[in-house]
Predict the structure.
Amino acid sequence: MAWIILIALAGAAIARPAAELLGKASGWVMSLVPLALFVMILQHAGDVADGGAVMSTISWVPSLGVDVTLRLDGFSMLFSLLITGIGTLVTIYAGAYFAEKPVADMGRFLALILLFMAAMLGTVLSDDLIVMFVFWELTSLTSFMLIGFDGHKPEARKAAIQSLLVTGGGGLVLFAGILLIGMTLGTFSFTEVLSRSGELVASPWAGVIAALIMIGAFTKSAQVPFHFWLPNAMAAPTPASAYLHSATMVKLGIFLLARFDAVFATMPAFGTTLVVVGSLTMTVAALKALRAEGYKAVLAHSTVASLGILVMLIGLDGEVAAVATVGFILAHALYKAALFFCAGTAIHATGETSLRKLGGLARFLPVTAVAAVLASLSMAGLPPFVGFISKEYLFEAQLTNGWNVVPIVVAVLVNAVMCGVAGVVSIKPFYFKSHRVDAVKHGETPGLLVGPLLLATGGVVIGLFPGGIGDLLIGPAASALHGSPIDVSFKLWHGLTPMLVLSALVVSIGVAIVVWWDAIHDRLRRHDRLFRLIGDGGYHFVVDGTLEIARASTRLLQNGDQRRYTAVVVAVVVAGLAIALFAGPAGFYIAAPDGSLRVSVTLVLALSAAGAVATVLARSLIAALVSVGIVGFAVAVIFMLNGAPDLALTQIAVETLLVILLTAVLLRLPARQRHSRTTGERRRDAALATAFGLVIFLAVASMSAIPIDMSLTEYFGQTSYLEGFGRNVVNVILVDYRAIDTLGEIAVVAFATIAAWALLRGSGARVRTKE
Amino acid sequence: MQIIFATMSRLFFVLMIGVSLFMLFRGHNEPGGGFIGGLIAALGFALLAMARDVETARRALVVHPVALMGGGLLLSFVSGLPGLLSDRSFLTHWWMEIGSTHLGTATTFDIGVYCVVVGGVLCLVFRLYEGIEQ
């Protein structure tokens, strides 16, 4: 099964050169990749039909217990089929959509779409939560690139960054939840998490984990309060929007919630939160859909409303809710992708994005118009379309759940708005006489028609013959969700039920909305303040606030004054060491050294102290440099006296080099200059320096008062010649025992030097003192 | 004094390079090693740059300091590869005995360290001295 993801990745890799080679036909040819995957996945249909799951494992990071385990059950099968099936149509459509654009653009787009598809497939198929998270974030990244595809447009860049911040940030929250699961249960395998869900729910972390996972899913699926990014994401080219909104990324949040619904089934707060958040999202999105002006904007807001419905459905318990969830996912994918395709064709043909300025397009785009009407009838929930069946299940799930009347009222109203939206987006631009469009720039081409036609007719065919798809897809998926096999009677006519009454209510309100669309629309547009409140104001507040804090801290800390940097660093070191010394468990103490006073050491130390005093008193920089050198060499002698010749040699060499380097720097500075520091600043520096010396003294004294553990010394002393063939223990440790440390260190030295070298480039030519 | 310094620098340079190589190769048994040897060699080149000019020191080094640094890093890395062949552990050194001395990939590793240190120090020394000599 790993082949599925690998083939998708390979398709992404070859898309660009293939586009150069194939030109206009590349959409058709490249669509063979998702089509082949679709067929491959379909071959497993028999294995998962009776509630089973196909697993395949590749070992990845065994030391961390992370394996690439793939799991294909009914639910991931439904998603994989949607991803590859709609992916096929999107690829074909993209080929036609980009036909008149440069071929490099088409290649880049196809590569991104296929990469996106691979990431989606990886997310829905992986059983290991860590692997799933990697793919999850990959979908955020690829969608960032797709939304910002027209990088020259500022709004595309803005929308791309917004979507990345929201979904990527949410992904990190989700990651925290996954890690907590791993810490609680000791496994990242979803199958095992599912089987041990009782243990998870009983743990003290259960509430936190559920909250983190919900936040992650809400950001991805654009739930309140993260609902704002999805409508902005329509800045992406239309084929990407169609994919994003119908089958893919925004549904991942739904996918995750549905998966974890079984785990958290016994936590009442989980379901309640989902119902509340879903209902809120539905309401907000429905209002915004009525107010929106752009063709894609209306569709985008209705997507958010649909996602709200799905979240609410997952929050409800029971078999019917599971069937309703699955049915709605399928129905929504079919009609929303088709409608986006139609919107894309209409916008492509006219160059006009506002719904208010489109009308009478059916003369120029007859087939698209038919597809749009068919798809929107399914969206409106009219028989005999699949949308009708899924809506009946939605109401049945609500009525059979002991919930109070509020969610039902919300659901009826939102569905009515969806019904109205469906009428407006399909009838208005294609058939209404007002704002008639007189000419189009591009007509329909086969590539632009395959997608919408197939999906729209699919909605009718499934509606008319629901049995097959019910057994093949809906049943296994709902069973996988519910955790036990469900006997699904996915059929069109349920008899005269309360659900039918609600449906009738929905349709009549929907028709009213279509008729009075302009009036409602104009009235809502006047309420600016309300919509600013439920728009992305909060997002901008957070982002702008963060940037302002960053600017303020930069002004405070990075003001370009080298002395201040040094002062800050020294102050932090002093504070850290002091806290460790005074508050630490060991405390500090100065033990009197045992043994007699060593005259040689005392003399050298006195010399070094004299050097330090001379440094402070020195008037010229050169004199200060020489005085510091005294201290350094004295330290080297101390090393020598204590039997560390390697250290002493290094210290002497470094000290000499330091003099050479500092001389080069000092030669550029004026030899004598008055102090530019005020008395106050100098006092502060002196205090800081004294404190630094004092703390270091205390630290060293406390450390040397503790008896040294000699076991390592003995070990290296005994083994260095036997195992490393060297008598110099220091060198054997450096090149043999800890050679990889040394390798890392010299790599750091090399990179740091290259950076400094690059910074110094050209400074020599500019600064020529000595005039 | 400048003339004396410049003349003597030649001699000192040769001596210091000799000492640095000695330090490098004795390092495994006596105090020394790639790091110290590298520092001493860098001092030798820096002396040349101070006493004469950077151009002379650059010519004496033959290769560019950045290239030397890269080469050293590569050498150290490559010296760990034989270990992968023998017991599949990176940087496990190979040894062979010639008379009483042991020669092995650890020495190659140390030579890499030597090159990185020389190249890295000289990168900065040459850059800093280039601006001020007249």
User: Anything to note?
Assistant: Chain A touches chain B through 47 residues (CB under 8 Å). The longest strand of chain A covers residues 54-61. The longest helix of chain A spans residues 154-185.
